[in-house]
């Protein structure tokens, strides 16, 4: 399928990085934003800072996100392009926003340890592990976006994250030259200067 009309208008691609909590979304998105000079938007943080929610859900231990307010807040930035959206859900974003949708996946043993370290309750921990086992986020992404832009990437280790960031940064560079046949003056910036392993190590795979 040809790129949608909004992707033709913007000069840089938009990427959605999604996955079960604990799969390394924020660490990966932050490293990729630095490597490819894109804007990283953490939806959880945005919702809190801008009050884009309908209160607190005691059972799920999180804010009740107001999806309409979030989309309204992001619309202009997404039309401009050059964004990485980082969130553990994906089905309410407009399909036209994204040029690549990345679903991060982590083995259950790693995921359990990460979520346990965050202090998740047994119920919340069990719910997230179950979501990962049944690949809920991958199925959600496939149902919400064109199949050819959805990719699942293993994200168990620092080495995995570095490799994924390099792959995605190279794709960003290729997207620019392919869609707009512009001179790749930024290619030096997109080498990713892969001291990324050190950057990610300090990030400690938080999300």
TrEMBL record:
<dbReference type="GO" id="GO:0009536">
    <property type="term" value="C:plastid"/>
</dbReference>
<feature type="binding site">
    <location>
        <position position="118"/>
    </location>
    <ligand>
        <name>ATP</name>
    </ligand>
</feature>
<feature type="binding site">
    <location>
        <position position="27"/>
    </location>
    <ligand>
        <name>ATP</name>
    </ligand>
</feature>
<comment type="similarity">
    <text>Belongs to the adenylate kinase family. AK6 subfamily.</text>
</comment>
<feature type="region of interest" description="NMPbind">
    <location>
        <begin position="42"/>
        <end position="65"/>
    </location>
</feature>
<dbReference type="InterPro" id="IPR027417">
    <property type="entry name" value="P-loop_NTPase"/>
</dbReference>
<dbReference type="Pfam" id="PF13238">
    <property type="entry name" value="AAA_18"/>
</dbReference>
<keyword id="KW-0539">Nucleus</keyword>
<dbReference type="GO" id="GO:0006364">
    <property type="term" value="P:rRNA processing"/>
</dbReference>
<dbReference type="GO" id="GO:0005524">
    <property type="term" value="F:ATP binding"/>
</dbReference>
<dbReference type="GO" id="GO:0004017">
    <property type="term" value="F:AMP kinase activity"/>
</dbReference>
<comment type="subunit">
    <text>Interacts with small ribosomal subunit protein uS11. Not a structural component of 43S pre-ribosomes, but transiently interacts with them by binding to uS11.</text>
</comment>
<feature type="binding site">
    <location>
        <position position="25"/>
    </location>
    <ligand>
        <name>ATP</name>
    </ligand>
</feature>
<dbReference type="GO" id="GO:0042274">
    <property type="term" value="P:ribosomal small subunit biogenesis"/>
</dbReference>
<keyword id="KW-0418">Kinase</keyword>
<feature type="binding site">
    <location>
        <position position="24"/>
    </location>
    <ligand>
        <name>ATP</name>
    </ligand>
</feature>
<keyword id="KW-0808">Transferase</keyword>
<protein>
    <recommendedName>
        <fullName>Adenylate kinase isoenzyme 6 homolog</fullName>
        <ecNumber>2.7.4.3</ecNumber>
    </recommendedName>
</protein>
<keyword id="KW-0067">ATP-binding</keyword>
<keyword id="KW-0690">Ribosome biogenesis</keyword>
<dbReference type="GO" id="GO:0016887">
    <property type="term" value="F:ATP hydrolysis activity"/>
</dbReference>
<feature type="binding site">
    <location>
        <position position="26"/>
    </location>
    <ligand>
        <name>ATP</name>
    </ligand>
</feature>
<dbReference type="GO" id="GO:0005634">
    <property type="term" value="C:nucleus"/>
</dbReference>
<comment type="function">
    <text>Broad-specificity nucleoside monophosphate (NMP) kinase that catalyzes the reversible transfer of the terminal phosphate group between nucleoside triphosphates and monophosphates. Has also ATPase activity. Involved in the late cytoplasmic maturation steps of the 40S ribosomal particles, specifically 18S rRNA maturation. While NMP activity is not required for ribosome maturation, ATPase activity is. Associates transiently with small ribosomal subunit protein uS11. ATP hydrolysis breaks the interaction with uS11.</text>
</comment>
<feature type="binding site">
    <location>
        <position position="22"/>
    </location>
    <ligand>
        <name>ATP</name>
    </ligand>
</feature>
<feature type="region of interest" description="LID">
    <location>
        <begin position="117"/>
        <end position="127"/>
    </location>
</feature>
<keyword id="KW-0547">Nucleotide-binding</keyword>
<dbReference type="InterPro" id="IPR020618">
    <property type="entry name" value="Adenyl_kinase_AK6"/>
</dbReference>
<keyword id="KW-0963">Cytoplasm</keyword>
<keyword id="KW-0698">rRNA processing</keyword>
């Amino acid at each position: 399928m040809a790129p949608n009309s909004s992707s033709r208008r913007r000069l840089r691609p938009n990427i959605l990085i999604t996955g079960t909590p604990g799969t390394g979304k924020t660490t990966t998105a932050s490293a990729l934003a630095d490597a490819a000079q894109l804007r990283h938007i953490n939806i959880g943080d945005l919702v809190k800072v801008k009050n884009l929610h309908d209160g607190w859900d005691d059972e799920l231990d999180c804010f009740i996100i107001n999806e309409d307010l979030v989309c309204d807040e992001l619309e202009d930035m997404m039309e401009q392009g050059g964004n990485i959206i980082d969130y553990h859900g994906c089905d309410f974003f407009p399909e036209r926003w994204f040029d690549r949708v990345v679903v991060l996946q982590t083995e259950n043993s790693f995921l359990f340890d990460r979520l346990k370290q965050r202090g998740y309750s047994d119920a919340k921990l069990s719910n997230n592990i179950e979501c990962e086992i049944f690949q809920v986020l991958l199925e959600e992404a496939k149902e919400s976006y064109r199949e050819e832009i959805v990719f699942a990437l293993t994200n168990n280790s620092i080495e995995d994250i570095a490799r994924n960031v390099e792959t995605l940064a190279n794709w960003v560079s290729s997207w620019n030259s392919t869609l707009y046949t512009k001179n790749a003056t930024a290619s030096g910036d997109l080498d990713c200067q892969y001291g990324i392993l050190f950057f990610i190590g300090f990030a400690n795979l938080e999300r």
